[in-house]
Structure prediction request, 175 residues.
Amino acid sequence: MRPFGHIAGVIERITNLGGYIAGWLVFLLMLLVAFEVFMRYVLHQPPMVADEFGGYMLVALAYIGTAYTWRVKGHIRITVLLDRVPTSVSNWLRLAALVLAFIFFLALSQASYKYLAHSFKLKSASSSWLHFPLQGPQMTLLIGFSLLSLLLIVEITKAIVNMRSGRNVEEEEAG
Prediction:
């Protein structure tokens, strides 16, 4: 379990980094919006790029921050069924949910890779006057889905280890 523990730690650190990047993107997006408001309503010269780059930043922060949000249990969780069944049953249900989530996000990772490869092939660019290359913003989908898929492997492994040792799947490892 030691080598996996090291790999899991690396994945969790990368996940944390994604969360920090998403947090900084929120801050930068706020500055961009404030800049646009100032330019539009004070100087009466709206910047032509604020809406476009604001959209790219919003997409990036959503996808890059997804794995971190999962890690800190920030997504909506419905536990009404799990709270009413024995721990052994809830453990198996949680493990099944993790495996299904992994399959789903692995498929999304694969689809986003194909989408990105197609975008590179076509040299996709925005339809605005900037003709900004879209591969950067589109890459955040692949990064986010792939990182969440890796994190789910860690979560599944931890769940199995916890189940084998008689603990609840949701328990954090000691030490």
In short: The first helix runs from residue 2 to 41. The chain has a mean pLDDT of 92.
